[in-house]
Amino acid sequence: MIDTNLNNFNALGKFLTGIPPVKFSGGSKKQKYEWVKEVLVRFNFRKLRKGKRGEVREYIQKITGYSNAQLSRLIAKYLKGKLYFVEYQRNSFPTRYSPADITLLCKTDNIHQRLNGYATRQILIRECQKYGKAEYEKISQISVAHIYRLRTTRIYLSKSLTFKNTQAVQRNIGERAKPQPNGKPGYIRIDTVHQGDLASELGSGDGVKEQKYVKGVYHINSVDEVTQWEIIASVEQISESYLEPILKLILEQYPFLIVEFHADNGSEYINHTVAKLLNKLLIKLTKSRARQTNDNALVESKNGSIIRKHMGYFYIHQKYAPEINDFYLKVFNPYLNFHRPCGFATTTTDSRGKQKKIYKTYLTPYEALKNIPDAKKYLKPGITFNQLDKISMQHSDNEYASIMDEEKTKLFDKIGLKPIDF
């Protein structure tokens, strides 16, 4: 701010009464502060009486447009000898995770179908520590809470891709009991997932059209209760003639001996054919108890988090069951058991006896199997941990997830559908 010809109270009075012998031009905030200080010094503001000070204040206000409060603060600073402009220093936290780190997180989420924060963090740690990938070093140190924060960032979002009720029945086959594995593998839960119906209209002789539903393919999902080792297969129909060979295939894929086979009360499993098969293999058959909804909860939760997440809800014709089965056998089941961390609950009991499950431990099913005391004795004859270690270390988690995702895309291309991201 620059003014001229105004250096006494006579000229100041004329200016305030409307005869402005002054020229002024606007400037920056710093220039305004310097001009205010120069005016206060020019009129010797410290020694002025109250009336004269008011004239100087009025003059400064007209020129600068400052409010009474702002001008009072500036004058107070002048009187203390501290009237000078200070550049504003904005406090900001340093950015810890670079766009490259966020891209690695997004890549991991995309190929694993966006697991929860704990499982995702475990994969990042394994990529860095177990498979020695240096680019994951920084992102592997991330907290679970911050994973969810980064998932809301612009960089992440720009790259992110991410039923019928059971009918009560009465059958004398199988024992109504909840499995009690006591920390031992071999107690599997099994359930069926239906891959949608296709509605079609059929014409009758009198011109009336009726709607008919064509059944899609079925997925057979089985999960070990202790290790969460999961084997999935696909079948055209759930009749006894179809289920017997597919159940044999499922049981053969487990690396440990199966002790108990637990299902709900569906007729596809609670029948004489399945009972005979399991009896021949010395496997106990149990079924869910009445009004105990948690008896088969583990496999039912896997139906949603695994099968529905990857295979979707759309209709797939039954003729594609062999191709889906090959995908499960060769790629998908190894991915689930060697490269996808699962949450293992720790149960705590408070003073009132109320139990609470906390999920802080995340391991792959294979890691969970190896952590069982004296785990070798549960393996099937001819299977060793050295063989399983080679499978586990052949690819990193992200590498194998990418392979699985590519094979799934090929499968959907063959079926004529596009994968759906959930």
Give a short summary of the structure.
The strands form 3 sheets. This protein has a 6-stranded mixed beta sheet with strand order 1-8-7-2-5-6, with helices on both faces. It has a two-stranded antiparallel sheet with strand order 3-4. Strands 9-10 form a two-stranded antiparallel ribbon. 42% of the residues lie in helices and 15% in strands.
The low-confidence runs, each spanning 5 or more residues with pLDDT under 50, are 163-167
The largest beta-sheet arranges its strands as 1-8-7-2-5-6
Described by the principal axes of the CA atoms, the overall outline is elongated
Q: Briefly note the structural class of the backbone.
A: alpha/beta
Count of helical regions: 15
Distance between the termini: 61 Å
Order of helices and strands: HHHHHHHHEEEEEEHEHEHHEEHHH
Strand residues, percent: 5-15%
Main pleated sheet: 6 strands, mixed
Characterization of the model:
This protein has 422 residues and is of the alpha/beta class. It has 3 domains: 9-79, no CATH class; 99-159; 175-415, Ribonuclease H-like superfamily/Ribonuclease H (Nucleotidyltransferase, domain 5, 2-Layer Sandwich), CATH 3.30.420.10. The protein contains 15 helices and 10 strands. The protein has helices spanning 9-16, 29-42, 50-64, 68-79, 99-111, 117-129, 144-150, 154-159, 240-253, 272-280, 297-311, 321-338, 365-370, 385-393, 397-415; strands spanning 175-176, 187-194, 197-203, 209-215, 218-224, 230-235, 260-263, 284-287, 342-349, 355-363. The chain has a 6-stranded mixed β-sheet with strand order 1-8-7-2-5-6, sandwiched between helices. The protein has a two-stranded antiparallel ribbon with strand order 3-4. α1 (9-16) packs across α3. The longest helix is centred in the last third of the chain and has 19 residues, at 397-415. The chain is elongated and about 115 Å long. The protein starts with 8 loop residues before the first helix and ends in a 7-residue tail after the last helix.
